[in-house]
Amino acid sequence: MRYTLNTPLSKDILKKLRAGDEVRINGVVYTARDAAHKCLVEMLQQKEKLPFDIKGQVIYYVGPCPAKPGKVIGSAGPTTSGRMDIYTPLLIGEGLAGMIGKGLRSKEVVESMMKHGAVYFGAIGGAAALMAKHIVYQEIVAFPELGPEALRKIEVVDFPVFVVIDSYGNNLYEIGRKRYKVM
User: Fold this and answer.
1) Catalytic residues
2) Cα distance between residue 157 and residue 132, in whole Å
3) Which of 59, 74, 139, 168 is most buried when burial is the number of CB atoms within 10 A of its CB?
C-alpha cells in the first residue's frame, strides 16, 4: 500500500501500516543520532523535560552535512539504526511513534514497538542528496555542541520511506529474505 502521513502520527494510523508499505511523510520530524539519544535518555532518567514533545513524533537517524549556499540543509542520508537501540525502548515508552534509519533493529526495540504501537521506517541509504531535497526547514533545538549530531527540528515534504518493521513486528528484511530463500 501507499500512504501519505502527516506528523505527529496517531496510533490509528500506525496500526494500518504494514511492513513493505511505501510512505511519504509530511510535517515536523526530529533528527538525532547516538550522542543526542544518550542526552535525551539522560534527561529522562534525571526527570527533566525533553526539548520537544515526543508523543507521536518521528526521529530520523541522520547527521546532515552543512548546507550549501541557498540550500536548507546538506546531504541528509540515514545512518545505521542499531547504534540507537540501547536508547530506543525508553523513548518509545515515552511516546515516540516512529523512527527513520537503515539496517536491522534489536529484539528489545521490536518488542517495545509492538508493546507501544511504534513503527520503524527505512530510508534509502546512498540517496542523501535526494533525501535533502524533501527537507524544507531545519533548526537546532538542543545539544548544539554535538555539531551535525545536534537534535534538529526539520520540516519534510513527501519524504520517501518504507515501513520496515510495523507495529505488529512484521519485518520487511525477514519477509524479503523468505521470498528468495531456496529450499
Assistant:
1) 37
2) 10
3) 59
